[in-house]
Amino acid sequence: MMIKTTRLYDNKTTSLFDVDYNKIQSSIVKSQSIIRTIFIYVVLNFLTLSLVAQSLPMTLDDCMAYAVEHSTSVGKKINALDDAQQDYNSSLASLFPSLSASVSGATNFGRSIDPETNNYTNVSTFSNSYGISGSMPLFAGLQGVNTVRAAKVARERGVNDLQLSRDEIAMQTMKAYIDVLYYIGTTEIAAKQLEDSRLMLKEIKKLYEIGRKSAAEMAEVESQEANYDYLLTEQQNNLALAKIRLCEIMNYPQDEELNIDENIDIEFVNMLTPMEDVVTYALNNNAKVISAELNTSYSKFNYKKIKGYYYPSLYLYGGYNTSYFVNMENQAAYDAFLNQLRNNVGSYIQVGLSIPIFSGLNIRTSTRKAHNAWRNAELDEMAVRNAVESEVTQSYQQMKGYAKQYILGQKKVDAAQLAYDGISAKFEKGLVTAIDLQTASTTLLQAKSDCLRSKLQYVIEYKMVEYYNGGKLVK
Asked: What are the distances in angstroms from CA 14 to CA 18, 23, 37, 323?
């Protein structure tokens, strides 16, 4: 239906429906344009952020966090912790009374007992009963209490073992990451030595052509160049294997390129905390020590639980029941259903005492084995504490040693570089043999490799000392 309106001053007729439709259509078009613009902006920003995130190299902290997040062993520890939590809940619930209900029904044909008169009858009958019963331990040698205590300790041990698993994965990742950095460095060193050797061979060939170098000398330089080419190939292969190992520990897809940050922050500063304080802190707070202590506590409570089988057990029982009976041939012979349920009510309270006398030495055997397990846990705890103390002491000493080696290594590299440059200049003038040049080059190569390894090993030991002193490997 079209609605018309007339404006008197211009004698023009306008459709209100047409005007409103045009306004609505214009608004819809504008809204669609705005929504389309916002959608394109969001998609472009998302793609940009994704490309930036993919292009950014992963730092050491990124690799450790990724490894912990995707570790299968950490996932198993999480499941084990959930099992420990369920065991704790179950042991706690066992201290409460148990309650059960029952319903039964039966039809008898032929000879049976009349429940009202207790006389035999030959009529067909139907009966059913309803009951509820419960029991509660009053005393059972503290088995329930010690079970709860052991389960609580097992739950705490699960939390600690989860953290220990995360730390171990982070440590393995850190060492594999440092190996990759080391072989990146040795590959660059080998490539630089190969480049210098090729430049030297090029100069020797020119001197050979003008008669200033012999064929034997040129052959020595060619041999040196081939040796550096082989060394570069070897280091490249070692780098590839180190990356494969890092991807394996991180659970990173092998078919995807792992781009890591080759720059690592390092400051050769003296550890402000004395070694004795680091050792003391580690022995009181390290996850390995705590796990061993919790295992000892668990074994102790388990021994006390099994020892409780020697004591008598006292239980309280109670119940409530009722029943219904009907003659199928004469249903009016007995009271109605509700009346029978009310009249046939019965209840009981019972206290039961169980005294263990002889069980084939099972209790004695179980108790002795539980006590031995407790003693073994104490010995394991002692061994773990000694191992942690040794680890902290070694890491602290190695940290100091690698710092000194790196400082001296830099000086050694500078001296080897000066010696190589001098011998190289003398070789061009024919003052030294190619063997002297190769010896100086090998010395320089070894000095650079040793300096690089000292630097990276210092990073590992410094972070380990920080970890033993309370630092977090994974933030």
From this structure: 8, 14, 35, 87
Radius of gyration of the chain (CA): 42
Q: Say what the pLDDT of residue 395 is.
A: 94
For residue 92, the tally of other CB atoms under 10 A from its CB is 14
Residue 422: pLDDT above 70? yes
Q: What is the dihedral of CA 388, 392, 394, 398, to 10 degrees?
A: 150
Q: What ranges do the domains of the chain cover? A: 1-40, 63-96+140-311+362-468, 101-135+325-355
The answer to whether 301 and 149 are in contact (CB under 8 A) is yes
Q: What is the 3-state secondary structure (H, E, C) of 253-321?
A: CCCCCCCECCCCCCCCCCCCCCHHHHHHHHHHHCHHHHHHHHHHHHHHHHHHHHHHHHCCEEEEEEEEE
Can you read off the two tokens belonging to residue 418?
């000066």
Residue 127 β-bridge partners = 106, 325
- Contact criterion met (CB below 8 Å) for 124 and 262: no
| Least confident among 115-124, 237-246, 278-287, 436-445 | 115-124
Query: CA of 449: how far to CAs of 95, 188, 212, in Å?
Result: 66, 10, 34
Give the 3-state secondary structure of residue 449: helix
pLDDT of residue 383: 97
Q: Which CATH class is domain 63-96+140-311+362-468?
A: mainly alpha
Angle at the Cα of 293 (from 292 to 295), degrees rounded to 5?
65
Instruction: Return d(Cα 348, Cα 102) in angstroms, integer.
Output: 15
pLDDT of 13 above 50: no
- With beta carbons less than 8 A apart as the criterion, state whether 162 and 77 touch: yes
Label the pairing between strands 12-15 and 4-7: antiparallel
Phi/psi-derived region of residue 5, left when phi > 0, alpha when psi is between -120 and 50, beta in every other case:
beta
* DSSP codes joined into one string, 128-147: EEEEEEEEEEEESTTHHHHH
